[in-house]
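[scheduler] slot 2 assigned
[scheduler] job type: sequence-to-structure, two independent chains
[scheduler] chain ordering preserved from manifest
[runner] begin chain α
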Amino acid sequence: ADEIERLRKELDTESGKLNDDQRNSKVRVIETKQKALQRSYEDAQNEYQQAQQDISGRIYQKMAPVLEKYAISNGYAVVLDVSGQQNTVLWGNTGTLITSQVVEAYNAQSPVPPPSTAPASGAQAKPSGTSGSPTTQPPVATTTPKKP
């Protein structure tokens, strides 16, 4: 960054003394160095983020069983991460899924009949073996896979 700044100052002070070819050559050198600096910055930032994700993943792998046991024993339906991470659901009791009930309620009030085929690719199907009623189903723990 210091070298780029020095080259810019040189270009500004010598601008009147340089012909077009010399000026263009110096501008290209500055642009090339700026691109290299930007790439180095992005590489460093990516390495930092990857290291952060790796550390978070290792911590989560150690904490997941403790979190799951605590959530089940205390009757929680879901545990959320409010730290600003991309994936905020850390654990969820599949007995609390309401997707099928919401779809049924919508279909009941909708003037358009529901399709007779499987749900669209974006729809969430009810897990097999669930009745939809959380009181008749034992808690089933799910964990979130390690972040890439």
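[runner] end chain α
[runner] begin chain β
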Amino acid sequence: MNAYTRPPTIVKLGHQLLAGMLLLIAAAAVAGDNRAKLFPILEQKQVLTYLIRFQSAKNVKTESTVATPMAPNNAQMDARGLLQIEVLDAQPLGGKQVLQARGQFLSLDFPVSAKEPREKQSGGDAQRMDPAGKTIEFTISLDGLIQNSKGLENLSLEQQQAWQEWVSRFAMGWTIPAAGVKQGEKWKSEQPEQASAPIAGLNWTTESTYVRDESCHATQLSGAGELSTASVPTEICAVILTTATLKQKSSQKDATPEDFKLHELRTAGTAKGKNEVITYISLKSGLVVRATEQANQFMDVVVMTADGSNRVHYNVDATSHSEVLLITQTPLNHP
């Protein structure tokens, strides 16, 4: 045998080992890239119903050199309602959709506690739409921003807040990377505070984590307002934990927004906040099945005239808790 010739059996065995190792590496790569695409694919005329519950409390302390300052008041809100969403158009683009939809409340004061005596529950209210027929039309862009909203100003304050809570949770899928995410993966985003505020340069920094998969259920709602999951099929949901932190980029000594400058006013102070959201997204449909949020926000600001002669010091402490539930059956759809 030539000294440089290998026995055929050894060559063949080497090839088999190499091929096996390559297969293992390929399998590991596929398993390691097992990404979940947590985005709903919706169809025109599709109808969804969600139950929203929202509670908030705002405490305000005011010190002023003005005789009758226009100060925000202490306030509490306890809003709940059924919101029906109809898909008007859903255009696919880049693995997501630009969604155009219409929303209308079935009933804002619908009783949703199984513990209340039935005689105290006005179940009939759930079987009609908002008697005023008020609707809101809106678009969710590819990056999850709400655009071209119409009709929001015609809703009551409670309905506006309930809708804002719903759309913030529902649009979660649009903020997740289009390529999908793996368990344990984190992703971040940043966007400016949308609401008008006496402090400029407020931005929300958001970090989300795909924590794990869990069994989940949509919720069934009876004519008496009782919630149940007993007869609803079990799904598997991705559990997403999101922490949003309000950060201030403006100076504490001069935090004046442009619209305040136009009225010859100056502001100084600080604002901060932290919201924690737990969202359950169906791995099958991409729909938000359940979401809860706990929010805490604080602002300490002085609003003064340009010459500093008059000033008002506001100290605002606000907390809120909300819950959004996907409803599979309502008295309106199933009499």
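[runner] end chain β
[qc] chain β: Residues 110 and 126 are 6 Å apart (CA to CA).
[scheduler] slot 2 released
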